Amino acid sequence: MTSFRTGFSVVCLFVSSIAAAQTPKKTDQSIDSKVNALLAKMTLEEKIGQLNQYTSDRLATGPLSPNSSKYEDIRNGKVGSMLNVRGAKDTRMLQDMAMQSRLKIPLLFGLDVIHGYRVTFPIPLAEAASWDMNTVELSARVAGKEAAAAGQHWTFAPMVDISRDPRWGRVMEGAGEDTYLGSSIAAARVKGFQGKGLGNTDAVMACVKHFAAYGAAIAGRDYNTVDMSDRLLWEVYLPPFKAALDAGAATFMNSFNDLNGTPATGNAYLQRDILKGKWNFQGFVVSDWGSIREMIPHGFAKDGKDAARLALNAGSDMDMEGRCYIDNLAALVKEGKVSESLINDAVKRILRKKYEMGLFDDPYRFSDQKREDAVLNSAENKKAALEVAKKSIVLLKNESQLLPLNKNAGSIAVIGPLGKSSEDMKGFWSVTWDNDHLVSLYEGLDNKLKGIVKLSYAQGCDVTDTSKAGFAEAVNAARNADVVVMAVGEKFDMTGEAKSRANIHLPGVQEELIQAVKATGKPVVVLVMAGRPLIFNWTADHADAILYTWWLGSEAGNAIADVLFGDYNPAGKLPMSFPRAEGQIPVFYNHKNTGRPASSDHYEQYRSTYLDLPNSPRYSFGYGLSYTKFDMSDLKLDKSKVTQNDVIKVSFTLKNTGKSDGEEVVQLYLRDMVASVTRPVKELKDFQKVFLKAGESKTINFTITKEKLSFYDQKMNWIAEPGEFDLMIGNSSDHILLEQKFELVD
Ligand code: GLC
């Protein structure tokens, strides 16, 4: 392992030193000297106070325990940060309390601004389907602006956990199954939240979470154990965290899970060796809610004092709602079990961020009610939410070219339990939404059609209830319409934290409702509104058209209406594989070939397959259709052999051969055919989203660098091995249109 650590640290230290220089900071020397001067004045209790974070009583995002001394603690300098305090008024009030403390050290206010503050954006997994980094950054930028105007200094986002398991409810918060896409999105979100840099009053600190590998919880059950090889950790789960750090992320949050037997919050390998060591992270690590104290039920800490010792020594700087630090660290220092120098390091990391945010200059600079009123819910922000929502929609099926609908459609029946729901459009992790500004599907259609097309509505059934009492009315509505638009899926709180599900079929009797409506013979468009990949095989086989619209936020209905009527040509691509059955999970595109691959034709039944299902998912990573067609041709590589310090220039022609303008996401995959470690059958190594007018062609260029050929060898050194590679270009991981081999030579 030594060689691995040495090998990796060389790469990382070099890269992170560049990253550190790129992190927009005020002159470090001036801040560091202020931090050191303040630290010198602080008592041990005041230092420990900076490591302590409480939640507001008005919003609990975890198991709440009574805390009668909260406000007294703030006045006595025993609290460094508060979370879940919303609005300029309330943050100002609490900051006032902090200003009564001896040293007047300002509080940091943090909140889960995951996909929007007042204007709600599509859930992160939906935004990932846009494959559009400008769109992802725009969403975070607007969320950051609104949050900063509402008193927030810090958002607990982006969540960058890779996950291959749709049973895990928190897939809705991330960017799906792929490391390359997930790393690109992680960086875009950090840039969005932090804007032009900390200290600007429209920027909030990002918080990269959950460090680390939380998305690999066994059986997709939230908070469950994670056990994986170093190779899988470094190759799949860590890169998005490094990408976020390199983008300048101010803070990290650790995770509830244990990793290979050590809870993340007490994991010095993760937090000291990797994050603060090899990666040279200068910010601070906040625990997840109570994750320090939860090392007791993990069976890793004997009691709160033991948990405090383990966590502080392992590099957890701030204790979110665990009260282990505030209750025990002073005694631990006196007993010599925790060194004050480690506490000083944690305090300095936190104070440095408070200086960078300008809070010592003006503790109230983010708590301005006039600015809050001016910035929140602006027309500009809602326009941005509409743009992001449109780009998040994925067209899964349109066989009979039913879509886009014609505005002379005559009459449309909107059927299904989510057809008139506005509340569910906000999705999970909306903590400050405005219910009056969530546009339902029905409202969106009404806004667009304004009486041109007769609209009717029938709920048909509930999301989870098994009653079919509403079927007759729904079937009747379908019979009396020219086209049916069905809105099915999940309620906003069915996917999210602590929302793992063993059964991810369309809930309740919704698929039977679709069957009953389809039996009328009317053309049926099915919209699936959900926070995760769901299973709906009958619908996939029989619906005329299917759009996966996720939970699209404030402008959901308007965005869907734009797509339904072709005012926007959908271009989304799935960021996760959709299983045919729960039994396939984990199913993901970048799997290994095995010694008896399903594709082989000479092993008869002795192949890595199921007896009852194909290996392939129902819908693959990277899949999504358009109202137009794209062709790829004329693939050229400027060389067929490349040396270690050279690159290959790749070009091909993309043509819009259809009748409407549109965007295509061209995806470049590589396969290392033979290596000293088995390699996936393909890995996404680059992509571009390209707009072409009908009939237009464009030459697309990619560059193959050594980095794209590299992997961790047997000794976990990051290297590229000579040999043959297969280059594949397509518009989905399972739809490769161009392919050519090349060789890496010494
Ligand atoms: C929650 C989540 C975390 C969130 C924190 C504060 O339990 O795990 O993602 O940021 O607590 O709400």
From TrEMBL:
Signal peptide limits: 1-21
Keyword set, alphabetical order: Carbohydrate metabolism, Glycosidase, Hydrolase, Periplasm, Signal
Biological process annotations from GO: carbohydrate metabolic process
SUPFAM superfamilies cross-referenced by the UniProt entry: (Trans)glycosidases, Beta-D-glucan exohydrolase, C-terminal domain
InterPro entries to which the protein is assigned, alphabetical: Cellulose_deg_GH3 (IPR050288), Fn3-like (IPR026891), GH (IPR017853), Glyco_hydro_3_AS (IPR019800), Glyco_hydro_3_C (IPR002772), Glyco_hydro_3_C_sf (IPR036881), Glyco_hydro_3_N (IPR001764), Glyco_hydro_3_N_sf (IPR036962)
Location(s), subcellular: Periplasm
GO cellular component terms listed in the entry, alphabetical order: periplasmic space
Annotated EC: 3.2.1.21
Similarity remark: Belongs to the glycosyl hydrolase 3 family.
Name of the molecule in the record: Periplasmic beta-glucosidase
UniProt organism field: Hufsiella arboris
High-level lineage: Bacteria, Pseudomonadati, Bacteroidota, Sphingobacteriia, Sphingobacteriales
Gene: bglX
